[in-house]
Amino acid sequence: MKKITLFKNAHLYTIIFCLTCSFSFAQDFSYGFLLGGVVKDITSTNEGFKTYSSKTWPQVTKFPLNIGFYGDYKFSEKVGLLANVFYSETADGYENYTSRKASINLQPLIKFDVSGEYNKGFYMLAGARSTFILNRDLENNWKPDERDEVISDFYKPFNFGVNLGFGFSIGKYIGFQVIGDYGFAMLEEYKTNTIGAYGNVYLKLDQLF
After folding, report:
1. Half-sphere exposure at residue 162, Cβ-oriented, CA atoms within 13 angstroms
2. What digits encode the pLDDT tens for the residues 4-53?
3. Where does the signal peptide begin and end (predicted)?
4. Nearest-angstrom CA–CA distance, 111 and 122
5. Which domains does the chain carry?
């Protein structure tokens, strides 16, 4: 009888512990919907290969912004981990053509809140970006027999960059971010780097429910 009582108590304590942890996590975790855009300059160290700029330019979705979600976990009153995940379509300018690509982007960022209360004021961001290329296309100034070869060999399927930026909350439901980006090794054949910035507006969905 005593063993059964101890087992029941242990089971009850486990449930209480799990519920407490879940409640604590829910209190410290926030999430929402993200809209934004990106503008970058493309530079190359290859002589004779001219590069220009990259910017948000949707062709498939016809939607004029990057679109995705974010999650924000608070470690303390000053520090947290913010992750942006979004779909993007961009147009990249090169010497004789414009290349359009669609991608999924992940930005894990350390968030340092400057104000006295987390997630309710100005904050700094630092971290990295990973970009996974979904597909790519070229303008029609390439001959049909050249397009497939160029498309398959042009972009690397994955590239990354480092991020530094800031953001701030606008009231209870809306916030804004500006995230500087320095990118590496975007193309297969040519040595290129990118420098630019992402601008995001986000809606705090956790505050609506």
Report:
1. 1
2. 444 444 444 344 433 333 444 446 789 999 999 988 888 877 776 667 67
3. 1-26
4. 10
5. 29-207 (2.40.160.20)
